[in-house]
Request: fold
Amino acid sequence: MELQRIINTGHLYVASNIFPQWLVDQVSTVDWLSAAYDRISIGNFKRRRLIYNPARDGEFDKYVWDVIAPQIERECGITFTDAQQNSVDWWIDEPGFKPRMHTDGDLASALQIYWLPSNRTDLGTAFYSTNQIQDLTHYFPNIPNTGYLMLNSHEPRPKLWHDMEQEVPEGVLRLCLYITFGPYLPVHR
Reply:
């Protein structure tokens, strides 16, 4: 995985080449539309959270905790402090999905990884320095095996406002892997 800090935020990173090719290849073998799911109940979001399936998710889960989390700790100079708040969730955003600009409140840290559709870079995430659309800090395009790392729990608490600039259109589903690592502390070197 490659991490590149977004200047002027300190808490936001471009993540690319996140998973190795053998895991990337597995994404195209899954029948995502028939996967069991529940709904994330935040407003009127049209988002499915897939129910954990060890056969589909086990290798991704293992790679996250064996490789990705330790790399983030090393490169960002932090230590994750509460494994009870970890999660690895596949999300499918349906037509009509477009969250309003928001911060993630008490969520300490997250990595969102884009997968499908590979031809819709406009279905990524925009981050802003304030809650005003003209204050765009960075746009993360919807490109497979890339995404963003957001670290929220330092003081002073960052205001990482974000949204999608485009609504998921009819006939399209957006697949993402969303990982939460829980709170963290800076490592003093």
Notes: The radius of gyration is 16 Å. The longest helix spans residues 54-76.
